[in-house]
Amino acid sequence: MSESPIGRDTPQVNARAKVTGRAQYAGDIQLPGMLHAKVLRSPHPHARIRRIDTRAARALPGVKAVLTGADAPDALWGVHHKERRILAREVVRFAGEEVVAVAATSDEIARDALELVTIDYEPLPALFTPEAALAEGATGIHPGRNNVAHEIAFERGSVEAGFAQADLIHEATYTTHAQYPGYLEPMATVAQVDGHGRLQVWASTQSVFLARMRLAAALELPVSRIRVMQTTTGGGFGGKIVEDANSLIAALLALKTGQPVRLVNNRLEDFLGACSSLPERLTLKLGMTREGRIVAKEVTILADCGAYCGLTNEVMHVSAMRSDNMHRLENVRSHAVLSYTHTPPHGAFRGFGGTQMLFALNSHIDTMAEKLGLDPVAIHRLNAIQAGDTSIHGWEVGSTGLMECLDQCTEAIHWAEKRGRRDQAGRRRRGVGLAAAMHVSGNRTIGNWDGSTVVVKLNEDGRALVHSGECDMGQGAMTMLSQVIAHELTLPIEHIQVVPPDTDTSPFAIGTLASRVTMSGGHAAILAARKAKAQLLALAAELSGHAEETLTLIDGAVRLRDADNGEIVADLATLARQHIWRHGGEGLQVSATWDPQTRMHDDDLYGNIASAYSFAAQAVEVEVDTETGRVEVVESFVSDDCGKAFNPLAIHGQTNGATVQAIGWALYEQLQVEEGRIMNGNFADYTLATADAVPMLASGIVESNDPKGPYGAKGASETAILPGAAAIANAVHDAVGVRITDLPITPEKVLAALRAKEDADHA
Amino acid sequence: MSESPIGRDTPQVNARAKVTGRAQYAGDIQLPGMLHAKVLRSPHPHARIRRIDTRAARALPGVKAVLTGADAPDALWGVHHKERRILAREVVRFAGEEVVAVAATSDEIARDALELVTIDYEPLPALFTPEAALAEGATGIHPGRNNVAHEIAFERGSVEAGFAQADLIHEATYTTHAQYPGYLEPMATVAQVDGHGRLQVWASTQSVFLARMRLAAALELPVSRIRVMQTTTGGGFGGKIVEDANSLIAALLALKTGQPVRLVNNRLEDFLGACSSLPERLTLKLGMTREGRIVAKEVTILADCGAYCGLTNEVMHVSAMRSDNMHRLENVRSHAVLSYTHTPPHGAFRGFGGTQMLFALNSHIDTMAEKLGLDPVAIHRLNAIQAGDTSIHGWEVGSTGLMECLDQCTEAIHWAEKRGRRDQAGRRRRGVGLAAAMHVSGNRTIGNWDGSTVVVKLNEDGRALVHSGECDMGQGAMTMLSQVIAHELTLPIEHIQVVPPDTDTSPFAIGTLASRVTMSGGHAAILAARKAKAQLLALAAELSGHAEETLTLIDGAVRLRDADNGEIVADLATLARQHIWRHGGEGLQVSATWDPQTRMHDDDLYGNIASAYSFAAQAVEVEVDTETGRVEVVESFVSDDCGKAFNPLAIHGQTNGATVQAIGWALYEQLQVEEGRIMNGNFADYTLATADAVPMLASGIVESNDPKGPYGAKGASETAILPGAAAIANAVHDAVGVRITDLPITPEKVLAALRAKEDADHA
Description:
Chain A is of the alpha+beta class. Chain A has a seven-stranded mixed β-sheet with strand order 3-5-1-12-9-10-11, with helices on both faces. Chain A has a five-stranded mixed β-sheet with strand order 7-16-15-14-8, with helices on both faces. Chain A has a four-stranded mixed β-sheet with strand order 18-26-27-30, with helices on both faces. The longest helix of chain A is centred in the last third of the chain and has 28 residues, at about 515-545. Chain A is globular.
C-alpha cells in the first residue's frame, strides 16, 4: 500500500524542474518580437520634473518606445491609498521612482537609450524622517494631505488602572529598520497583447488575481481584458504581493508598442524598485506584577512608509495589536502613526509587522524578567494565552503549542545551564536568549473573504490535475496541494499535477499572504478531493452493484470495505474513464470552496480574524567579541507550532530560512539610505547572512493539532521569523550585559554599549 | 437594450486576430532552444528496410537527433486497428510513410540532414487496388491479416421481396475518389518537455483530448504526462481529427532531444502525410414503384483505406447506411468491404462518407426518375422521411426541413423552366441538376458518450470567460459559444472570452467532428449560463431582499421583473464581486454537462445515434462545352436545414465553403497516384476550385427548429457538402444527356461519354 504523504518528508514537487534548470521563470520567457525594457529612475528624493527630453533616445535604432508619465494613464494605483502613477508625472517623491520606461530590441539598447534621456529636475526640499514629515508646517508629500498615511488608536480595559496595579513598570523605545526581501529572483514580468487585444502578463508574483486587479486599476482596463499567469517564482517574502511597479510598466510598454515586452530587474533595480519591510520606532510600556503578570501594555508606534503607502497601513496595524493576542491581557492601549517621507516605499514582508513588535516585546520581557529576578520563560508561560481562550481583541485560540515550543527550545539550547554565565572571562563571551511569537493562519482582511477554491480533475489514467489560484513562491503550495490530493485519493504524489495559477484558468484566489494557503487552500483541496471520491464511490457502486457504504478507496482503487483481501472493485483509471464514457457521463472535474468561519475585525478592531493561530519560540546562543563588538550566533533552535506538519522537510526548510533571514535582519542587513538614496543596493554591500554567519540550524516541530486546521495544520512560514531578532538581542544581553534596542545589532553599537556600560559600571 | 446575438449575423470572434495576423498558429510559436524537424518518407509503396545509415546526418553540425523506427516506442497506434508505428520499422507500406525524423537547429539543416541519410530498401511487390489486395493469395499488407480492414453486412426487411414489388429496378456502379482536405494551414506541431518532464504539445487539431489519447498510446505515456493545447487552427475538414503522425513525430523528437521541436509540414509533406477522403466504389441497386416509391435498396461498397485503416471503417459505415435514413424504407441490404492497399492512407473528411453514397444515390434517383418519366424532386418528396418518423435504422427524426430545402433550391434555380432544355444548339449546353442530403448532428459512437462540458466563469467586471474542450478549426465554435453565453447572460458578445482548448485546463471533450459542437457544446453552454444566472439571481435576491421570482436578468443587470422602468437591483459586475467578497463566497464559476439522449447503434446497427438530423438540398446549373468536355457550374443554390441559424453569416460561410469543396471534388481535384505515389502534391497540380471556377454562390437557410436542438439548432457545416457532386452530375446529364458515374467529371470523361452517346445514338 502506498503510504500517505501527509506527515512524511516530501521533496517539493517542483524541485526537479528547479534544480535541473528547466523551471520557467518570467525572465526565461522568450516570445517572437519580444522587446527588452529598462526604467529610468529619479536620482532625487523630491523634485519637480521640469522637462523630459526623449528625442535622442527615441531616435536610437532599436528603440521602440520611450514613455513618460504623460504616456501613462491618469489612474492612480495603490492598495490603501490610490496615489501612485505607473510613471511619475510632474513630481518625484523618492530616489528610485520610475520616471521613464524604454522598450528596445535588446537589453543593451534599452540601457543605452536611458542614457540619452535628459530630464530637467528642480530639486525640492525633502522630508527624510517621520519626525520631519510630521512637523508642523511640513510640506505635504501628497497634495492636500498632512503626511499621515494611516493612524490607529485603541484602548481596551483601562491602561491607567492596569499600571496602577503594576509592581514594575518599564518603558523603552525600540527601533527597527527596513529589510530588503532578498529573494533570489528579482521582480520580473513579460507582457504582451494577444490577438484579441487582451493583455497577457507572465509575472513572478504571489497573487495572480491581485496582480490582475492592480493592472486593471492602473491601466484603466476591465479585469477580463487581462490575463495574468504566474511563472515559477524565486521567492517573494511579501515583496511580490502588490507593490511592484514592474508588471505595470511592462504591461504599459506592451500596450503602447503592440509587442511583447520583458522587464526583469537587475539587483540594483530591484533594491530601488522593490518594497523593503516597514521601519518602525516602537515605544513599549509594560506593567507587571512581581510574579511577572502583565497588567498593562501601552504601545506607541511611529512608522515610515516612504513615499507611497502600499500595504504598510496593514503592516503597522499588525505591529500595533497582534502581539496583544499572545497573552492573556486586560488592559492595552496602542497609538500608531504611519508617516510619509521622501524615501523609497516600504511594504509587506514575511512576518508582516510581527517582527518589529516582537523584537520590542521579547526584549522588554527579558529586561523586566531581570528586574524582577524571574526567568523570562516563566513570564512567557505565566502570560501565555491558552487553547480555548478568546484574546482581548476577540481572537479565538483553538490551539497553542507555545508551552511545548518553549520546552523544546530551552532544552535544546540548555537554557538552565547556559543562562547567565557571569563567570566568563576573556574576549569572547557567550550568552543565550529566547523569544516567543504568534502569527495568524489566514487573515480575514480583504473584502471579508478569506476562502479558497480548488478544482480537481481526474484524468483517464486515474491521475489528478489540480487547479488553484494560490501561488507557490517557493514555500511549497504546490507540494502541499499535491500531498492533500494524493492523501485523499490514495494516490502516489507523483500522480498529482498542480497547474500553475492563471487568472483565465484558475479559480479565483486571493493568493499567497498571511500564511493562509495551507489553511484555506488545504481545506479546499480536502473538500474537492472528497467530492471527487464520493463521485467515484457512487459510480463504482452503480456499476458494480455493491452498496456504496460497502466500498472504500484504498491505494488508488475502490475496494470492498470488509474484504480481507482488499478485493478491487475498480481502479481509479477505470472509473475515471467510466465517468466519461456512459450515458450522462462527463470528465470527472469537481470544484470546492472553503471559507473560514472567521470575522473581519469590526470598527472597534475586534474580531476573530483567523481560523487558527500559530506559535513559535526560538532560543539562541551567541558569542560576542568584546573587542570588535561582533556578534555571532553559534547555536539556534526554533520550535514551530504549525498545528500539524504535513511535510516536516518543508517546515524545517521554512524554519531554517526564516532563522537566517532573522539573523540577517538582527545582525547584518541594513539598507544604507543617505539623503533618501539607497547606497548599497547590491549583495556585496547589503550583507545578507551567508553560510559562515549561520550556525548549524536546528529546529523542532510542535503539533498542536488545531481543531480548525486541515488535518490540524496551521500556517508555517512566517511564524519562525518572528522571534529571531529578540532572541539574539536577549542573548547579547545575557552574554555581555548590554541591551541593544536599535536594530541591527552592529559591532559599532555593541562596542558603544559596552563602553557606556563600562563607564556606568565604573561611575 | 443590447440585442441578443442569437440569429444575428455575427463576425467570428477570432476574426480580428486572424486578419491582423496576430492569431497564433502552431507554426508561429517560438520557444527558446527550439529545434526544427523534418521527416524522410518512403519513396516506395512497399519495401523492406534493409539498413538505414544516419551517421553522416548525425555528424552534420546543428543536427540534434536523427531517429528511425528503432528509436520509436514499440507501441502501435491507430483508431480502429493499432497497426502503425510513429516511424516505420522493417517494412514501409506506402510511398510517403514516415521513416526517419530529424531535429536540427534550423529548418535548412534539418532538410540537409535528410539528404545525408541513406536507406537501403528492398522494394517488394505492391498491391495498389482493393481488387488486387483481396485477390486470392495476395500478400497480407499487415502480418497475419487478409487485407480486409473492416466489413459491414446487414439486411433489414427483405430486399428480395422489395425488388419483387418494384416496377423498375436499376443497378449501377459509382466510383468516388480521394479528396485532399486542402486546409490553408498544413499539419503543424510544436512539442517540448517541461520542467516536470511532462510533454507539452501545441497542435493544429480538431480535438485536444483525442490528440492526447493518441500521443499517450503511441508514446507509451500516461495521459496525465501530456498536455495538448490547441493553437489557432487554419481548417481541418476532418483531416485533423486523429490521423496525422505529425504531432507524434514532433513529440518523439522533443522527448529524445529534451528540446522544443517544431514540425510544420510544407504543402508537399502535407499531401504525403495527411489523410485524404476515402475512395469508394459503390454499386447501388434500387427498386421503385412506377410512382417513384423506393421499395428495395441494395448497396455494395468496396473501399480502399490505403496502408492504414485510421477512421475509415467508420467512414465506410456511414456510406453503407446513413442515406437509408433519409427515406422511408422497408427493405435495405448493404455489404461493404474495406481493403488495405499499398497506397497513402485515407481518413475522415467533411461529410464523413456521406458524400460518396449521396453522389451515387442522387445520381441513381435522377436516372430512375427519367426512366419513370418523373421529376426527381417528386421522388425525393415521395420518399422523404418526415418529422416524427423513426427510420429503418432507428433514427428518430425530430425535424426535417428537406421539403422546404427542395422548394428553395428549385425556385432559386428556376427548376421547372430550365430543366430538360432539349432544344439547345451549339457548342455550350446548359442543364440543371439537383440532389438532396441528410447528416447527423452529433453521433454517439465514441465510447457511448456524445456529451460536452462548458465552464463559465464570471469575472469581477461582469464579463465572462468560457472554457470548453471543443475546438474551433475555423468553423466558429468560439463564436457559437460566445453567442450562447452572451444571449443567456444578456451581455454584449465582446464581453465573452472563450479560452482555447487545453487538456490541462479545459473540461474533457471529444472535439470537433460529426457536426456535434453546436448540438452538444451549445446545449452545455446554455446549461452552464443558466446555472450562473440562477446563482446571480439568488445572490441578488439575498442581498436586495427582493423575492427571487420577482427578479430577472436584462441587459447585463438584475432587474425587478415587473418594474416598468426596469429598475436595476444590481449589475453583473457588482454581483460577481459580491459573489466572492462575503462569508462563504467564491469566484462565480459553474460547470455544466449535456449529453444527448441518443443511443449507440446496437450489434445489429440499430439505434438513434444523433439528437437531430440536418438536411440540405442543392440545385445547380452547369454549362458543358461539348467540344472540350469542360463543365462549368454557372449557378448554385444550396439550402441548408440547420434547425435554427444562430449566426446566418456563419451558416452561409459554411455553405459557400462546402459548395466550393464539392465543386472541387466533382470537377477539378484529383490526386494523381501512380504506382502508389502521389504525383501532384502541390496546389499548382492539384487543382482546387479557384475563384474563376465558382459562380456567385447563393444559399438559403431553412429553420426547422428541432425540438432537441439548442434553440432549435442542428449541425451546419457538413450537410452542405453532401449534395454537390450529384447535383453537378445530374446537371451534366440534363445538359448533354450523358451520365458520369466516375468522379471527378473531367473533360476527358465527358468527351468520351459524349462520343459514346453519339455512337449509340447513331447505332
